[in-house]
Amino acid sequence: MAQLTVRSLLTALAVLALAGPAQASGDGFIAPPVLDVFGGPPGDQARFFAGQPGVIMAKAPEARLFMAWRLLHGQTVGATAGAGLSMPCCDPAVDRDYQALVAWQAARKLVPGAPSNDPWVRMDRPLGSGESRPNCFGSALEGASVTLKARIARWGAADPAVRTWLAGQDAVFEACAGNRVPLPSLAGAPDWLLKDGAYQAAAQQLYLGDNLGAAQGFAAISRDAASPWRRPGLYLTARALLRDALARRTPVAEASARKVLETLAASPPGSWAYREAAAPMLRTLDYYLKPDLRRGQLKTALEGPTLRADAAADFRDYLGLSFKRADRSEVFDWIAALESGPSEPRRWDIPDDRAWRAPALAKAAVRWSVGQDPAWLIAALSLAEPADRQTAALLIAAHKIAPDSPAYLTVVWQMTRLEMASVPAAKLRARLDGVLKRTDLSATDRNLFLGERLQVAADVADFARLAPRQRLCIAETVDACPRYAWLMGEGVETGVDPQTLTWATQQLIDRTPLADRMALGEAPGLPAPLRLDITLTNWARAVQLQDNAAIDRLSMRLVTRLPALAADWRRIAATPPGPDKRFAEFLVLAKTPGLRSDLTSAYVRPEGTVRQFQGFWPDWLIATKPLPPATKGPSWWGFEGVDQTCEDRCGAGAFPLAAPAFIQAGAARMARERGYFAYLRGEETDERITNGKPYAATPPGAVSAWEEVLGWARAHPDDPRSPEALYWLIRVSRKGASHDGSGQRAFRLLHSRYPGSDWTRRSPYYYD
Fold it and tell me: Which segment of the chain is annotated as a signal peptide (predicted)?
């Protein structure tokens, strides 16, 4: 039976009042999940609800900023109200509706010979112009599944009356999409089916928009003491009249709905089902038909010392009624100040538009100076940049905020951002180390401060200690981190490492000369997977530089760090410099599709067996002399001026990535080394750019690794590695960038020279 529940109404109101666009996290690349504007894991959420706001991220959802405002002013939030305010709109309902649909389809199949129907019940009613509105909800499907199973258990799946019931229910669900399908005749039907049929008829009228007809039908059911649907009858009557009042918006329709709702609300407990739904339905009536009255009630509720359990609905209703009003609560002015600026993150190739930021900063700074409210200091700091005329005064005020203030962590983070280029690194390290010693930091807070601390790392060892970040979503169930899953539009990752390197950290590592990079790979404290990533990309750099000492040292490290290629690593280290050694090195490049010399350049960690390695091959070029300097190397594309520390979520003020002093000291060496790193154009690979144009052919002074592999195999037919090398060149041409048809040439040589080889049998095609 299409049973209508309290949740049906609340979900409907959520869809009407709460729907909004999903947020995205950055421009071009999706960073590992180390920050969460929704609050992170349950423990971090609990501390927030108890009064510890942590670092307030300006681009957090409005409901979270509302809670932060309360905490900054000594008001409570509480776990119940906080949980509702922290939940992104509608996501759990969508999943529940889908599960209800699956259950309904399974229940229908229990009836032999049940008429086939569209497997997807269309739950939205078209409004024209491609728009629609929610009309039915998962609770109706759930109720229908339960009722159908009950009728089967009582009367049998083959009973004709059960099949008639199912036909009636299918007609009801057709009405969800506005389709009027005649209900089956009930002439001669048993009494139980007549009762259910009356309910189905009223439900169909409701979904078709005949609200008064539905109200009359449900009212009659409420008066029928023999009907199994009598107890929810008064609620359903009220729901139909509420729909009618919202549709017609006349005094008569409003009075009819209000009378029944007040009767339901005043009824003794247990007398009617869903009696508790009357209060939110009355609030809904006031929201649409008496908005000024409802707005005043909501303002009082939201500004009070405590929040009601369903404060999320209050907040969103108030926001809807007050968004453009000049007399709205101050908290909404504060939220608007934090949200100032373009909706999209800053890009390296788009100049800063000060037209929107300067006025917002000026207003926030004035609000701070007038009332000395730390919330407005936070807003002003989040908008400020070091060169702004207000910044000096704001920093003086920031230094006076006490460590026990709920504003302290946000102020320190913003203050450090603004002083990154002007305050000695040692002083910043001392400040940030003090913060990182705190035991009350959330995972997001700690990752944010580690991001700042990394930019003033003293040396390689200090950098290695600070580099790993806690990944926020590594649980096996979506309940452990539902907010991040909603934010990114994807499920929670499973089987991933608990620590990761952010894009900012990877960029800094990629700007580090090989010698320092190798020291970083040996520094204590790095998790094994991250150590492998750094060591393997170091090895690729050493190969491109043809630094044989580094190649040998790194190869021996990789014997244990990537044992799937242990034999290759040992052979490389044991072979003296020359063509044989280069062939052994280039064979590893051919076996490792995701290998790169930059972490930020499509690198994919090799996992499992060699045949399980993932990724795409570039056309590896080995330079005999430095190539002309590029206008932009792959590690820098799209990141100039982008806030990689907070991913543009902490405010409109700029926070460009800064390299620690020891990395800056190696900039000249890094520039010389990068002259040896080159890629050709290829699918899923980076393009080396010179003077704004990609290389169309092998640059002067460079040779193709694939060409050398093919040449070695041609010249050494008895080398047992030759057929395998040809096999891999064919693989390269399938999922990567081969060189001048090297895959096709390898295929022909392999099949003509080694017809009985297993490598030949595994290579029936070429792909150039």
Answer: 1-24
What's the mean pLDDT in 27-31? 39
Q: Give me the DSSP letters along 3-67.
A: ---HHHHHHHHHHHHH--PPP--SSSSPPPS---TT--SHHHHHHHHTT---SPPTTS-HHHHHH
What confidence category does residue 683 fall into, taking pLDDT thresholds of 50, 70 and 90?
A: very low
pTM value is 0.81
Between helices 311-322 and 6-18, what is the axis angle to 10°?
A: 40
Report the range of poorest mean pLDDT among 126-130, 403-407, 425-429, 487-491.
487-491
Where helices occur in 88-210 by DSSP H, the ranges are: 91-108, 138-155, 160-176, 191-208
CB 162 within 8 A of CB 115: no
Distances (CA, A) of 22 to 68, 124, 326, 590: 21, 20, 27, 41
Token pair 């960690």 in the structure block, residue: 605
3-state DSSP helix/strand/coil % of the chain, to nearest 5: 55, 5, 40
pLDDT in tens, 411-456: 999 999 999 999 999 999 999 999 999 999 999 999 999 999 999 9
Q: Which amino acid is it at 555?
A: S
Specify the amino acid at residue 321.
Answer: L
Q: Judge whether residue 688 has pLDDT over 50.
A: no
Query: What CA–CA distance (Å, rounded) separates 355 from 647?
Result: 22
Q: How far apart are CA 79 and CA 311, in angstroms?
A: 11
Q: Which of the residue ranges 33-42, 268-277, 663-672 would you say has the lowest mean pLDDT?
A: 33-42
In sequence order, the 6+-apart residues with CB closer than 8 A to the CB of 459 are 662
* DSSP class per residue in 396-427: HHHTTS-TTSTTHHHHHHHHHHHHTTTS-HHH
DSSP letter assigned to residue 617: B
pLDDT tens digits, 257-292: 999 999 999 999 989 999 999 999 999 999 999 999
Would strands 124-128 and 131-134 be described as parallel, antiparallel, or unpaired? antiparallel
What are 232's two structure tokens? 């929810």
741 alpha-carbon distance from chain centroid: 40
Amino acid at 163: R
Token digits of residue 42? 């349950």
**Bridge partners, residue 704, by sequence:** 621
499-500 and 469-470 beta bridge pairing: antiparallel
Both tokens of 454, joined, read 């990394």
* CA 731/CA 57 separation, integer angstroms: 46
What length is written for the chain?
768
Q: Which two tokens stand for residue 561?
A: 């760090």
